[in-house]
Design brief:
This protein is an alpha+beta fold and about 110 residues long. The chain has a single domain, classed as Alpha-Beta Plaits, CATH 3.30.70. Helix content is about 30%, strand content about 25%. Helix 1 packs antiparallel against helix 3. The protein is globular, with a radius of gyration of 15 Å.
Amino acid sequence: MADPVVVVATFFPREGLHDSVHAVIKAAQTDVYQEPGCLLYSLHEAPDRFVLIEKWASVHDLNVHGEGKALGKLVKALEPLLDKQIEITQLQPVADASKHPASQVKGADA
């Protein structure tokens, strides 16, 4: 079984466009969840940014998502709304978390 992969994407809205950026990202949620291997698409916010945490069943699923229509549509819609380029960080587990007691918490190590 492939290891899951986590992606953190940070979006910096132009001044006055916070709500517009929020709406665009939320609108993509249904399409992204329908993609194979999408385990999590969780949006968080701060006054100057949005942070999207995604979890994919495998790097392959993430790569398919990266070439898919949903992400292309999202990026195109966000381009004029952002103050700077989207920051994307791909994370990998550093240890076998399934052996840790906390892994029994739902979603800790899917």
